[in-house]
Amino acid sequence: MQISDYLATLIKLNFKSDRIHLETMTYEFKDTEAKVIADVGIRGLVIGFLLIATGLLDGLGTLFSDVGSSEKALVVTKDIFIMLIGVLFLLPFDNLRKVDTTEGQDVKELMEGIRRLNVSLLGMFAFLIVVLFLELMRILAVSN
Amino acid sequence: MSEYEFNKEENEDFEMLTQRLLLVAITTGLTGITGLIAVIIAFDPYLLVSSLAVIVFAIFFYLPIDNFKRIITTEGSDIKELVRGFFELRAGWNVSIGILSLLAVIAFIKMLINVF
Fold it and tell me: Are A121 and B24 in contact (CB < 8 Å)?
């Protein structure tokens, strides 16, 4: 292949890529599709607040209970991490909700929501490892 | 408008999403199972309900993975698979909200009993 042919192919590919990019920017979800995505966003917010409330109530309940101090510390620490998981649920879902409320930005908002969800899931994984470890410690403490 | 195809960069984000959903599903499932073991050793109704709930959450994290994976592996049905994945997530999270509300009520009652 001549260099000029190679350059011509490259230009064609770039042109095609630009067209795909333009299509990406103008894509709009249908109302029913956007609603499903936005619903996940709203439910994510509700789950986040419920996890924070549950962690807070269980933590307070444990603080006032008559269990041993080491078990109390383990449960309260676990509840703090559950509340942090709740906060992570709140982070990505504003973008998903915007898919239904804005126009001309659907894919951009969706992908931003997915990226934030990816970050949240990584955080949840890390916090769940801590919760798992605390649960194992609690089993050891109770069984001894 | 014709069927939309996610580009390479977007597919990479979906691939990451499937991997992390699986990671969280496994860890959540393990946490629930560990909680159930703790219930066997020392019975606690709140821990029993919360451990069962955690296992259910693990299933809900796992369910949409297949649809999100198909966004990357198939062509011509990206939006269909995306919406199905989100539909699975919405259904799972509807149930999760119900379970978490119940847990919040139990935690509230437990707190009242311990305080007074």
Answer: yes
